[in-house]
Design brief:
alpha+beta; 2 domains; 8 strands; about 15% strand; elongated
């Protein structure tokens, strides 16, 4: 009966192993963190959305440049009443605004009629004219058009920095998911190997029992160990599958369709391959802070506010514009030369400047608020960088210590195996040593994960993950 029970236990172990492991084909493909990041960067919706923000900023710059486009114009007015042509006014030409506040205009004017205003009288064949408009006070340093263009140009840089910031955020979440996927795979490998060792020991104990060297109870204990480790393997397999699904959430196809990670793809288990060492890590903390995309974006936004402040200060000046128009008879342009002209000056100045002073005060307050927020961000990022550096050092020390310690666990396990093979140790002791060594390997995986995560968090704190 004991022999029949042991045979039944062996058949049950073989059946459960075959049914669980039949999907393991061994044709795995390794996907490194860098390859994973490249796939995320290609088609992730967040990346595409932020790229659209950059395109939109470029469109806004193009619209701002449109304020300086030359414009063709044509004006025609005709009044006809009681069979009389009171007047007919024709005016066509080209206006050319510039980035220096000076505007040019040239055109042709031809007017006629019984009751034409003498002011609008022109020679029979019309009148060519030119115009130069020059600001003498407000508008010399800047104006609305130049300010809008400057802000649009700065906004492109700010949006690009925002893209880097969003990529840094996305790559941190994706990288953390990759590391968890890597940890799940490493634990799966340990549990699978542990099950294999348990099954091999069960077969060896079974043969020893059949030869009369081992009691039947040892086969029961070895069988229990096999099923315990099979349960651990199944739990690790479930964890790895779930982490694979979570990782798939960062992968998208080029038609905006979520991708599904192939079951044959596995993570890179090498620690040194996780981070690209080409990224300069020798910079001081202040230099790292200055390069952070969040800080660069905030600085660019501060530049936009300073451009607005400059415009508000310009509005405090009186508006004085000088217009000069040389006139040319269309019938004899060369003879008239610059002898005919009209010119004028326009002056406009609010007495109390309440609107202008209020706008300037508001612009200054916005700058103060943005500067305070920028200082806070700099301090926050600096502290995160320092803490991440401390975490790396601590995690690296802990990892080195446990690497040395796990060699001792392995040595104890190997020594106990030799004693067990020579019949000088019990099944309980060899299982105990082996379980301790297996648990130590899983703990080593946790230390590897913590070290990799601390390195990832350092590059995240520096805002450099998008450079990977």
């Amino acid at each position: 009966m004991k022999r029949l029970g042991i045979i039944f236990l062996a058949i049950l172990i073989s059946f459960t192993t075959e049914s669980f492991a039949q999907k393991d084909t061994g044709n795995n493909q390794v996907m490194s963190l860098k390859q994973f990041y490249e796939l995320v960067y290609l088609n992730h919706p967040l990346v595409l959305r932020v790229r659209l923000n950059v395109d939109n900023a470029k469109a806004m710059q193009l619209a701002a440049k449109g304020n300086f486009d030359p414009k063709l114009f044509y004006q025609f007015n005709d009044k006809y009443f009681n069979e009389k042509n009171y007047y007919q006014l024709n005016n066509t030409g080209l206006s050319i605004p510039t980035k220096y506040g000076v505007d040019f205009k040239t055109g042709y004017e031809n007017n006629d009629g019984y009751f034409l205003n003498p002011e609008n009288s022109t020679p029979l064949k019309g009148l060519y004219y030119a115009q130069v408009s020059v600001p003498l006070a407000q508008g010399i340093m800047t104006d609305d058009r130049r300010t809008i263009l400057k802000q649009a140009q700065i906004n492109i840089k700010a949006t690009q920095a925002e893209l880097d910031f969003q990529l840094n955020e996305l790559f941190y979440k994706a990288g953390k998911s990759y590391l968890e996927w890597q940890l799940a795979f490493a634990n799966l490998s340990v549990n699978k190997e542990a099950y294999t060792l348990g099954k091999q020991r069960f077969e060896a104990v079974k043969r020893s029992f059949e030869l009369g060297d081992r009691p039947a109870i040892d086969t029961v204990e070895a069988g229990i160990q096999v099923f315990d480790r099979l349960a651990g393997w199944q739990q690790a397999e479930l964890e790895f599958k779930n982490k694979s699904i979570e990782l798939s959430g960062f992968l998208w196809l080029n038609n905006n369709t979520p991708a599904i990670l192939d079951s044959l793809i596995i993570p890179d288990t090498k620690i040194t391959s996780l981070i690209d060492k080409s990224i300069d890590d020798s910079k001081e903390v202040n230099d790292m802070i200055a390069l952070h995309p969040n800080i660069r974006s905030a600085n660019f936004k501060l530049d936009i506010l300073n451009a607005e402040k400059k415009l508000k200060m310009e509005k405090l000046k009186p508006m004085i514009n000088l217009n000069y128009n040389p006139l040319f008879d269309a019938a004899n342009v060369s003879s008239s030369a610059f002898n005919n002209y009209k010119w004028g000056v326009s002056v406009n100045f609010p007495l109390f400047l309440r609107k202008e002073r209020g706008d300037l005060m508001s612009a200054k307050l916005k700058i103060q608020q943005s500067q305070l927020e920028l200082d806070y961000k700099k301090n926050e990022i600096g502290n995160k960088i320092k803490m991440s550096q401390n975490d790396i050092q601590y995690s690296n020390n802990q990892l080195d210590i446990f690497k040395n310690n796990i060699k001792n666990y392995e040595a104890l396990w190997n020594a106990e195996k030799r004693l067990f093979d020579n019949g000088e140790s019990s099944l309980f002791m060899i299982n105990s040593r082996e379980n301790t060594f297996i648990n130590a390997r899983i703990k080593l995986n946790d230390y590897n994960f913590k070290y990799n995560k601390s390195v990832l968090e350092l590059y995240y704190a520096k805002g450099q993950l998008q450079n990977l």
